[in-house]
Amino acid sequence: MQTKITxxxxxxxxxxxxxxxxxxxxELASAVSNAGGLGIVTALISxxxxxxxxxxxxxxxxxxxxxxxxxxxxxxxxxVPYREYANAxxxxxxxxxxxxxxxxxxxxxxxxxxxxxxxxxxxxxxxAKKAQELGxxxxxxxxxxxxxxxxxxxxxxxILLPRAKDELNxxxxxxxxxxxxRGLAAALCxxxxxxxxxxxxxxTKEAPVHQNIKQALVNADEKQTKLIFRTLHNTARxxxxxxxxxxxEMEKRNASIDELAPLVSGLRGKKVFxxxxxxxxxxxxxxxxxxxxxIPSVAELVTRIVEEAKDIIKERLIGIIxx
Length: 323
Fold this sequence. Notes:
The protein is α/β, with parallel strands linked by helices.
């Protein structure tokens, strides 16, 4: 399956693993790349730029295929040395970076000098246009269905993707709600050149999370997510558990971020993945959980998605025209 994205990134299949906090490890990323997709190491899992460099190099040693690195730039209470992380990424020799969160303008000079292809993740056409102006090589368009931060416009991928295709001159990656061959075929029809999956890769054998998390996604339906931080205009979609329900109730009473912080700590989310206690903290999951029904290996999943998409395109789409 050759598209503008597979040619741009040098990968076999138009399937990309999203950068996920606590999940985007060298083990998972290399498994995705070895399966023909693009694996992504999450830089900020590492507490320092120096440690991030070691992890990226470890990932590169685990595959002969292209691999990428995610650098998410967010407003934080404590300063994060994003420029230093960018320098470490450039030093590693990796040639693909996924940026997310705030405008990546402050780190773009580092990546451009190192001839790194930058994919910026966007939740609106406005942000995608800005990424194009900054010189990004591609954009990942996040629909409202996605896990994590879907933006504040509540526009689903069915609308965002064709809008992006109409407005942009660079390749588009579809993100949010994708987990099988039907989604890949649909994304290609809507103008995307690849799909980006986070939640679906969470439910694979190689994902570095407790089995309880994987099984919870298998058992979930499409209503098993919750939107928090709506009152703070920093909406996040997470798995619907006791903490999520508590946060939403507190927001109804106009709770401040200082009041919510102890409940939504990232370290509590990390503990969830380690221990399998689903209610200990918040952890991101997308609506795509509703179509996750097994826990395959990464290679099995990627192969299945590609073959299913090919069958849909050949038998369903071309078949309709021929009939």
